Fold this protein.
Amino acid sequence: MNILIIGGTRNLGHYLTYALLEAGHQVTVINRGLTTDELPQEVERRRADRTDVDQLKAALGGREYDAVVDTALYKGPEAEAIVNLLRDKTGHYVFLSTGQVYLVRDGLKRPFSEADYAGPEMPMPEPNTYNYEEWCYGHDKRLAEDVLTAAWETRQFPFTTLRLP
């Protein structure tokens, strides 16, 4: 398979890149180029700041991928941009989200289930606090998930969300 990883040089993306290569896949990585790249030569590299739609569009170059794994998506507007850029260009899009999407809800008990996602969020905490930063992270990831869900419902954009702990 021809697979694109957005954000593939650090953390989970780094290990995923190696695993996909070992499994015989062709891998392209898009990242900002700010991190030392220790990936093998057979990885195709493209540079873009994913928050800059023009850079991302240029890096994608209109190419098609069997699958795209996005390890660097954090906000709703970024999700809308990637849906627009990859529509009809990928067989499947995988979004690495977070379990933090549950922690912005009031009154939930662990372990969480998919049914716990729906419902109102807790009020935004006081800015410049740890709780505020954590809330923003979960809130922003929820917005991205909601954009992808709407893209599936209205445009049949093929995606999977993985909520990692």
